[in-house]
């Protein structure tokens, strides 16, 4: 290494070039478009160039969201010819397929065609950049490095690594440019196959396979310990099943060839799984480390994303208010991935299922009389409007009375609790705490809701012949109350003067949704009030003797630390309660005193109602 390295001249106005518009190449390109650069994607295939451009166009907002406030992206184009693409580049990322000879000749060609101050980066993880320099001169080697991207925009760590010859001054410069894209760059201090994290992760996978091969434990136990220790939504065995055991085998093969390590974990995965076509989630009928699921044993959680944690300023306010979704996730070893069943909903809040259909409410704009109640088949098709705009103000939790075949739902700003048939007919008001048209102060001025009129959560008890609802009071105001009234309106009374209303619990931080275990006589609810008593999952024994644990508070806190917990559903078979929160997380809270376990987390999720079906 001769003279000291200095940054490429005028790099701000020179292009970033990505060679290869594949899965990773187009993502690297999008990162630097978001950072404001002009980016050229060079790919010999026209189809690949077009797909990469379409990817950036459609997904640029997710990359801009990483840059913490940048709203104006750079420009981008697809280019066929290499020489044209790189002639004035300040950095070239090569993301061509992982074939040694192809990568080597790419570097030789870049040495000839790119400017002499251009930084040359490879995305390879199988090859150290030092392995790719067989055909280039000594001086060029000083500006070659590895940049190993995980999977932006979801996984934003980038590991930088020397080729063994890279000028040390390159690293702080390249790190700073990656930070402009909102990425998290780290630099390995020397060359290493597998960089930093992949080596550690490979060791964890390898040791899990050894534990299984030696019969020391099971995938279920390994994953449960992992999740409990690290608060992670998925465990290592689920992740291996998720990426595919053939890929796990391929990576381990590489390490076995490079290092003097035991072949036993590799042979275990080859002989017991890959050879039998048991690759994990991609072979659902054969399974992987986990056996294929038996019908009826998996829990399909259905929950609502109200859409309010989406990056601001990139959608019109109408798109923003109609960005709600019905999502689903399999609670058992699915890798926590959620699928959208229904989208385009106006602030959805409450959800329940019955007899092959989903029922949910859309609040609409909370200050407008524009809520709706909807229903659809479990796969999201055949959407029907049960209560149209104009008939309900701001509908919240809904609950199907399975025996009576009725749908109950609260109307927050409408100051009511409703009940109707499952097709929306015979709709009746069963509780009325005020008239939102003539008593707007009961709705609008949240600061002095010293008496709470707004109805939020609802459920029923057939055993007690009652329904229950919450009036949450002002935010974090410790004015939350839970009420009950009988399923039949007493003779001679109306929804606003019925004499059978009882207070079940009061002075709650901010109680929200309700769930009744009729068999055990226990009422459960979420509370989004102030910690430590709020942001909790609670229970109260309504039938039989009050347990000792409820004596102090008149209720028992089962789980704490929810991020504005809303939806909840009891799973008797697994003795747990699932909870969704507005911080975009779905929790499984054990009723055996165990910790809560995170099933799923959506980076921009904001979740409200939740229910499930067994599949
Ligand atoms: C590098 O990018 C190419 C093209 O997108 C891809 O096929 C390859 O898997 C990537 N390599 C790594 C280690 O991500
Ligand atoms: C945008 O990203 C999503 C998620 O990765 C992907 O499914 C979609 O195909 C992308 N859009 C285009 C046009 O490639
Ligand atoms: C709320 O406070 C304002 C100002 O103090 C008062 O005029 C109004 O009557 C109050 N509303 C209720 C429902 O107490
Ligand atoms: C209410 O009135 C109906 C008919 O008038 C009667 O059959 C019923 O027993 C009454 N219910 C109660 C609780 O009094």
UniProtKB/TrEMBL annotation:
Residues covered by the 3-hydroxyacyl-CoA dehydrogenase NAD binding domain: 16-190
The protein's name in its UniProt record: 3-hydroxyacyl-CoA dehydrogenase
GO biological process terms on file: fatty acid metabolic process
UniProt keyword list: Oxidoreductase
MF terms in GO: NAD+ binding; oxidoreductase activity, acting on the CH-OH group of donors, NAD or NADP as acceptor
Signal peptide: none
Organism of origin: Neohortaea acidophila
Taxonomy, superkingdom: Eukaryota
SUPFAM superfamilies in alphabetical order: 6-phosphogluconate dehydrogenase C-terminal domain-like, NAD(P)-binding Rossmann-fold domains, NHL repeat
Boundaries of every 3-hydroxyacyl-CoA dehydrogenase C-terminal domain copy: 194-286
Pfam families (alphabetical): 3HCDH, 3HCDH_N
